[in-house]
Amino acid sequence: MLTVDDLDHFSDSKLAHLFETPDRQQDPDQVARLARIVACLKFCSDIPDAQLLAGGANAARTLLRQALRSQRRGQLDRESLAQSLETVLAVLGTAARHAGESDAALESRTAIESEIQQAAARHDADDSIDPDLLASLAAGAFELLPTSELDELPEALRGFGRSGVIDLDLAVDVGGATEMLRLHLALECSAWRWQAVGGSCFSRNGQPAVFLEPDDALATSVLAGLALRNGRHVVDWYEALPASVCEAQRD
């Protein structure tokens, strides 16, 4: 049986053979999934009991052990892994998606976040006024929040040269802590791209705003995600969120 103590040995190269497939051809996707499962198991071992639902720690470890066994036996596909991790988060008292977020809305948000991550990863640290935030975006350690205020976005998409002002909220993991990031973006939309203009800024955890140059990598990476499918993904996601949920989150 896998125990929490066993996890310390998973990074030992001498044990790599335990995770190889019979034909010695290791699937990179399987390796990535295994790493995520192991990371979740380690995470569960460190959560204070006061933060857990009743029986949450034991239930989470059981679910993750089952997922790990299925993964090692080649029986865990991508969708099953996602379902397992959502269930684990639920028993730990943490929602895996925003309240009222449908499957279609989650798919749109995931596509946007993936595009932001890829765009951020193409930049160097010195391309932004805040290298730590940029690194977190490049690592995919963030998610869009329904507290974002994007009401002007659909109008800005209606034609060449239109402009708008939006506030995009992100939960970003920086240095082992989750920070709330609000990006205030004044943007212009053209037939070819979206661009931030003067007046754009950001705030971390409600601290005083830091103004952004239009070509700062934080702004350009986020706009790359918002412009996906000419903005339809972000508008579909935003419009799919129940208005009551968005208002409650802002309050």
Q: What's the short story on this structure?
A:
This protein is of the alpha+beta class and 251 residues long. It contains 9 helices and 6 strands. Helix content is 43%, strand content 15%.
Supply the key terms.
6 strands; single chain; 6-stranded antiparallel beta sheet; 251 residues; alpha+beta; 9 helices
Overall description:
The structure is a single chain. The protein has 251 residues and is α+β, with helices and mostly antiparallel strands. The chain has 9 helices and 6 strands, in the order H-H-H-H-H-E-H-E-E-E-E-E-H-H-H. It has helices at 28-45, 56-72, 78-91, 103-121, 131-138, 153-156, 217-226, 232-240, 243-250; strands at 142-144, 163-174, 177-189, 194-196, 201-204, 210-211. Strands 1, 2, 3, 4, 5 and 6 form a 6-stranded antiparallel β-sheet that branches. Helix 4 (103-121) crosses helix 5 (131-138), helix 4 packs antiparallel against helix 7 (217-226) and helix 4 packs across helix 8 (232-240). The chain is elongated, with a radius of gyration of 20 Å. The model is unreliable at 1-5 (pLDDT under 50).
- How many helical elements? 9
Oligomer: single chain
Give me the Rg, rounded.
Answer: 20 Å
Query: Can you tell me the residue ranges where pLDDT is under 50 for at least 5 consecutive residues?
Result: 1-5
Number of strands: 6
Average pLDDT across residues?
Answer: 78
Helix content: 40-55%
Main β-sheet description:
6 strands, antiparallel
Series of H and E elements: HHHHHEHEEEEEHHH
What characteristic shape results from the CA principal axes? elongated
Beta-strand percentage?
5-15%
Pairing-aware structural class of the strands and helices? Answer: alpha+beta
Cα distance spanning the termini: 46 Å
